[in-house]
Amino acid sequence: MPVARSVPPGRAGRLWLRARLSTAQKGRDQLDRKLRILLPEQQRLQTRLERREATWSQAYAEAQTWLLRAVLLGGEDVVRCAAPSGTAEVEVVWTSAMGLSYPEDVLVRTGPADGAVLAGNAAVVPATAAFQAALVAGARAAAAREAVARLAAEIAVTRRRMRALDKRWLPWLRERLAALELTLEQTEQEDGMRLRRAVSGTVDRRSQP
């Protein structure tokens, strides 16, 4: 916030304050519009996060169940050998709202498993599929969690900026403008009175013989 001495004096100061008050009000309106767009989006993302976390929790539990069955049927070595070759790749799909980017979804790619090992244990195939499903569900839940966190942070920043405008910047500008308007009005009245007295004095002198 500028100090009082940064305001130009006189009518220039009035123009200065009016311009900044208009800019600040427009900025405040834009922040309000941003909040009205982001808040429903936050609710949508929160609902999606809860749904995806529930899906991930269920998928993880199912994967653990099939893992236990595979171990009981073929031992831990069979399970280790059935692991896909290479590492999984996760690609984040991004979207944006009001200039904020956040994850919308993910694409998960996994390497192929050893077909011979899969054929040797009836529980390995469904266990592998269950773990792949759990991986996808976990990645999607993580993306949804990041989206919620980013939106919450942006909303908090937007609210802080609005509070700064509402509680400090806008009141300061309005008070300074009102004070300057009053000063200018008083100055104009005094100037008018002096002018009238000067004119009256001139007329009186001319009317004297």
| Strand and helix order | HEEHH
Largest sheet: 2 strands, antiparallel
> Helix segment count?
3
Shape: rod-shaped
Helix content: over 70%
CATH architecture tag of the domain at 31-175: Orthogonal Bundle
- Beta-strand percent range: 5-15%
State the distance separating the first and last CA atoms: 62 Å
Q: Helix/strand-derived class? A: mainly alpha
Q: Mean pLDDT across all residues, rounded?
A: 86
| Strand element count | 2
Strands ordered across the widest β-sheet: 1-2
- Low-confidence sequence ranges: none
* CATH fold-level name of the domain at 31-175: Helix Hairpins
Please give the radius of gyration in angstroms.
Answer: 35 Å
| CATH class type of the domain at 31-175 | Mainly Alpha
Describe the fold and architecture.
The chain has 209 residues and is mainly alpha-helical. It has a domain at 31-175: Helix Hairpins (Orthogonal Bundle). It has 3 helices and 2 strands, in the order αββαα. The chain has helices at 10-81, 115-119, 124-207, and strands spanning 89-97, 100-109. It has a two-stranded antiparallel ribbon. A hairpin with a 2-residue loop joins strand 1 (89-97) and strand 2. The longest helix is centred in the last third of the chain and has 84 residues, at 124-207. The mean pLDDT is 86.
Tags for this model:
single chain; mainly alpha; Helix Hairpins
